Amino acid sequence: MKTSISLPIFIFLLYTLLLSFTHCSVLAQKNTPFVDKICKQTPYHALCLKTLLSDPRSAGADVRGLAIIMVDVIKRNTVSILSRINELLKKGGTDRHKRGALLACIDKYNAVLNGDVPEAMEALEKGDYKFAEQGATDASLEARLCEENFETSPITNMNKLVHHVSLVAASIVRMLL
Amino acid sequence: MATSSHCLLWFFFSLFFGHGFVPLEASHQVYIHLQNRSPSSLKTHQPYRTGYHFQPPSHWMNGMCWPMIYKGLYHFFYQYNPFGAVWGNIVWAHSTSTDLVNWTPHKYAISPSQPADINGCWSGSATILPNGKPVILYTGIDPQNKQVQNMAVPKNLSDPFLLEWTKLPQNPLMEPTTMNSINASSFRDPTTAWQGTDGRWRVIIGSKINRKGLVILYRSKDFVRWTKAKHPLHSGKKTGMWECPDFFPVATNSSMGVDTSSMGKNLKYVLKVSLDDTKHDYYTIGSYNHEKDIYVPDKGSVDNDSGLRYDYGKFYASKTFFDSAKNRRILWGWINESSSVEHDIEKGWSGVQAIPRNVWLDKSRKQLLQWPIAEIEKQRINPGHLSSRELKGGSKVEVSGVTASQADVEISFKISDFEKAEVFEENWTNPQLLCSQKGASVKGGLGPFGLMVLASKGMEEYTAVFFRIFKRQTKYVVLMCSDQSRSSLDDDNDKTTYGAFLDVDPVHEKLSLRSLIDHSIVESFGGGGKVCITARVYPTLAIGGEAHLYAFNKGTESVGVTTLSAWSMKKAKIN
């Protein structure tokens, strides 16, 4: 871009960007008391609050909407952990036991990605919420079982995150039953 | 939601003009060990598939709400996912049978095809009209993801297999509107309809308003145009969503079944609902006021999750139908897996059905009794009987000569000495909790005694189904448990223990127990069907020919075994 016309345009665009962020965060803040009330009923209040409020969709969401956001979060974190496990396996230099545990975790997280998450999403969209609860609960189980496979886990924090957000999702879904 | 899309619009507007392109995340990545099983690639090692309990060859099956009989042939429609071992993409699968034991699969009866069910064909029920014609009412998911009720009729009534079904162009026949204020995510599972004295049809549909569960009543003259009644047939506070309701009459003076539309004296009514919240099927017995269309449970009924259940283990979305060929009422129930979803995907399937049970009113009129249909006994071979004997405290006796992983066993106990029975504590109100605390390995005064099924040779694994007897003032309390805590060395599975109090007087009556064992399912019946407990187990050692069966007594006091009969069960053609 030519500097003679780009700078004003750039400043204008930066302003618009900032405006959209503050606009969104003001709207999200309006719904904070409701989100807080919901999160207080989950086993990980602070994590629930932080996760939901950082998603712009929480601004106008009802309980079902919040549950949908949390299932999305399970999915995102599952994709991340699968990616990390892949990296660790490619890197090599892990002992046989650790390698076996990593491979077992892949199976578990594939089940979350291909089984639990789509099941929970469809259940939330169509209104048979117990299957969303089932999917979210199972996701927390798979994360725990993955972690328990290791003597020294290289992915403890990531496993914990999936485990915790899954339990948060399950407890939000329970409010719909 | 409108405000958040507004936000997004601003955001993307600013980004776009700043950089001209918003990169998208890769939506699909392939990971090693990714499983995508088709039926033909089902894992060959399948130690948990059943020999004589109904299940499809692969994939997911859940609650089936519509068994029926037509022209002497039994039909079984069930919720099925053609694409995977979890719930989703639900269609109606269809099988038929002449004996409720051996089944022939057919093509899917119903799958999404019209707006009223384009997003799903969920549960419903069959009604046989007075002219013998079957019709089905079922829940469809419409384009807005609302739950609506639709109707389908057989395309060709002269086809006894009823392979093809035609959906009414008028569908949906019942739907949530702003006028009727029905919750569009909580309106499903229409029952078998019944005719009132005025000739009009009634049907109830499961629903809820906030935490109040209810069954919405609809009436119709022609089975096509339905009008919502002002009041529900029945409701319950703080119970959550009522799913898969079932409403039917039972005879007070006979164990025979009666038609759903029956009226007159010598009848009581049963309302059963499946509780979404707790995954339990509970029922009450009561009276039905035909004029006002109101159901009132009998005085003393526990009308919530703490009430009477068909089964105190795994048993959900059950439904009865009137078998007009044999004048009996038969109960079907869905038994889901107790394994993790990863295991389900790995084995390629999920969900089995309980053995169909006869159901009738107990003489006391306070509960229903259930017993596996007589036809299942045709699968019995290689009978083994143990002579009556005393089973001393701390002993066990092997029942050999049967395939212990696929068996039917009946045992009867007689107690002569109650001296050592422990005292019952009044705060023991939760039998399931009591069984968890006092599992099979906990020695007692009088009990635990019963069966150890799917046991490994070295007893590393076993599932125990047993009784404990406690003294309560001048009477005795019988606790029946199904203890899965040592059922498998694999800790990935749910090994919760189940239990219930059994209403039998052990002083004057014998204590009977029957267990139907089928690889990964144990269905137990106490007191001739007064308490039923179904469990799912996944042993790693006690599989196939390596499974053993024992009668045991880990109490202090010895107990008398009056009869013990066991049979191997022939494999049925389950699909």
Automatic annotation (TrEMBL), chain A:
InterPro entries: C/VIF1, Invertase/methylesterase_inhib, PCW_Enzyme_Inhibitor, Pectinesterase_inhib_dom
Residues of the Pectinesterase inhibitor domain: 30-172
Leader peptide range in chain numbering: 1-28
Signal keyword on record: yes
Domain of life: Eukaryota
Presence of the UniProt keyword Acetylation in the record: no
Cross-referenced SUPFAM superfamilies: Plant invertase/pectin methylesterase inhibitor
Keywords: Disulfide bond, Signal
GO molecular function: enzyme inhibitor activity
Entry's family note: Belongs to the PMEI family.
Protein name: Pectinesterase inhibitor domain-containing protein
From TrEMBL, chain B:
Molecular function (Gene Ontology), one example: hydrolase activity, hydrolyzing O-glycosyl compounds
SMART domains assigned to the protein according to its UniProt record, in alphabetical order: Glyco_32
Domain Glycosyl hydrolase family 32 C-terminal stretches: 389-568
One Gene Ontology term from the biological process aspect of the record: carbohydrate metabolic process
Signal peptide: 1-20
Gene3D superfamilies, A to Z: Exo-inulinase, domain 1, Glycosyl hydrolase domain, family 43
Glycosyl hydrolase family 32 N-terminal domain location: 53-372
Keyword match Cell inner membrane: no
Origin superkingdom: Eukaryota
Annotated keywords: Glycosidase, Hydrolase, Signal
SUPFAM superfamilies in alphabetical order: Arabinanase/levansucrase/invertase, Concanavalin A-like lectins/glucanases
A Pfam short name: Glyco_hydro_32N
Family membership noted in the UniProt record: Belongs to the glycosyl hydrolase 32 family.
PANTHER family to which the protein is assigned, alphabetical: BETA-FRUCTOFURANOSIDASE, INSOLUBLE ISOENZYME CWINV1-RELATED
Protein name as it appears in the record: Beta-fructofuranosidase
Species in which this protein is naturally found: Vitis rotundifolia (Muscadine grape)
Lineage: Eukaryota, Viridiplantae, Streptophyta, Embryophyta, Tracheophyta
